[in-house]
Amino acid sequence: MQIVLLILAYLGLRLPWMLTLPGSEAPDEPNHYWVSHFLTTHLRLPTGEEVLAAGLPAQYGSLPQFGYLPHVLTSYFASEANMHMLSRLGSVIAGVPTVVAAYLIGKELFPTSKFKAFALPLLVVLHPQLVFTQSYINTDSTTVSLASISILIVVRAIKCGLSIRAAVLLGFLLGWMALSKHTGLSIVPALGLGVIAATLGRGETLAQAIQKIAAAAVVFGSTCGWWFVRNYHEFSGDILGSKTMYTSWSKFLPVKDGQIIHPWPQLNQLGWWRYIFFDYWGLFGYMNRYLYRPAYIVYFAYLLLAVAGWVGLKMPGQKKDQATEDAGITAQTAGGALDFERLTKY
User: Fold this and answer.
1) Does the pLDDT of residue 340 top 60, yes or no?
2) How far is CA 315 from CA 158, 182, 309, 320, in A?
């Protein structure tokens, strides 16, 4: 019953955004829509010639396209007039597994506390930035769900052991993630630590651990490797597609003294760090629409309380289950990596 209520709350918060958010306030949505529309109408990947011929609207055409699969499914039978809105519905639906995974992770991490277990998925449902991101066309929604399921697999593996089947599934999910958005793979180091804890940390031999890691790696490579080979040939050696994307995008950016002016602050500027802080919780439009400023202070207090709770868990004399603690650390680290991925969506 709880998971049903969570999903209903998830939909209740995101569907109004989906229906009312202007395209001009959804970051790069026209560019995302070009890819989604092409995939839906042609049922194949765009070629390098087609992407270059389309110009700026197709700037994401050289990047991984399989994060748009939910959008293709929701808009395939739509008329041209309704295709854009139904493509947005793909992002909403793609985000539902994130809620389910968060619910199950909460139960794994806090088996004796219903409040704490429910707080985790509730935070995901109410997270302002996720509400925004999961309401318009992009690949972030799919990527976050793939990452969330991967975290769940590793958390359970730390507590119960990593089977070959789980390792294969993890490799497939990470492969799909690579086919959805490169930066989603920023979660791999955290998951790698979890895999080590789930194998060597549980007393398995090095050979057993390598066997499972190799199984995941082979499936990962088989799932996504072909795409990078294709990109190398389609985009003149641009394996990731990012150089092609940036070349198309940079032509329309302002230039001062021969230098391109990017829409975000420099790393050595205070504005960059303020942007990171705000975007962690909610920064809308083209990085220029803020929440009510005191709300950020409240959200920051959540982070401080979480850190204090973790420190308390590590204090001597506190009763704790080592597997649960390790799983919690892995989930927190992976969550941080996932936030890094989300911060790079622009």
Assistant:
1) no
2) 21, 38, 10, 10
